[in-house]
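Workshop exercise sheet. Pairs work together: one partner reads the sequence aloud, the other fills in the structure field after running the prediction. Swap roles for the next sheet.
Pair: D.N. / O.F.
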Amino acid sequence: MAEATSVVSAEGGAVQKEVTAVSWTGGKDCNLSLLCAKREPTLDVRYLICFRPEDHAFRAHPIPMMQEQARCIGLPLLFVDIPRDTTDYMKEYVDGLRRVRDEYGIKVICTGDMDLMDRALCLNTLLSEGFDIVFTCVKSPFFDGSWINRILDEDAIEEMKAIADQGAKEGMEKPLDLGGERGEYHTMCVNGPIYKERVGMDINDEPCREDVKGGTHWKGNIHNADSIWTISLNEDSV
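Structure field:
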């Protein structure tokens, strides 16, 4: 089990640093969370942790890409596998958290979530901090395959703002969320202030495309789509 370290506070006293993991998919939100956690003097960030359903294909956040991110960042990537046939996901998540707590001495888990934050501010913060981010999954009707592996930059943000505004004007029940919080798009970071080197993956020019007859039927506050495009990794680089 990992032992906590200490840091001297501004008042001169010792403050115990808590062993910390960052919940990880490799996307923009968790990268910003990791940056903030590393800058927090009371946290000792030692691990990245990914909760993954058993035998589930992470097409929007390819696991080989996550593993390469972890190598370039210099932190171990831990996996908590959720059994495929479970009927109680909450219990499995809690049991997984207990296992990593007991095995690795993790006291704090940081998560990245834009739900309670200004979307444009978060995106602009990522750019100003120097993160290189690419789109790895996009969904109709807001996007098409040309967005896959495109850099998330100021031009992309402005285009997404225009798409969101147009949806609102047309009276869409769920116009584009600028942060992709309903799953309209997903990203992966390939470089930035927390990386020791750029993430190197061989990406195919043609993305994967899935057309769903009648559209997807995910429950809750999730964007449903007729077509989904995801990044395609060259098998030789996986």
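Discussion prompt: The longest strand covers residues 43-53. What would you look at next?
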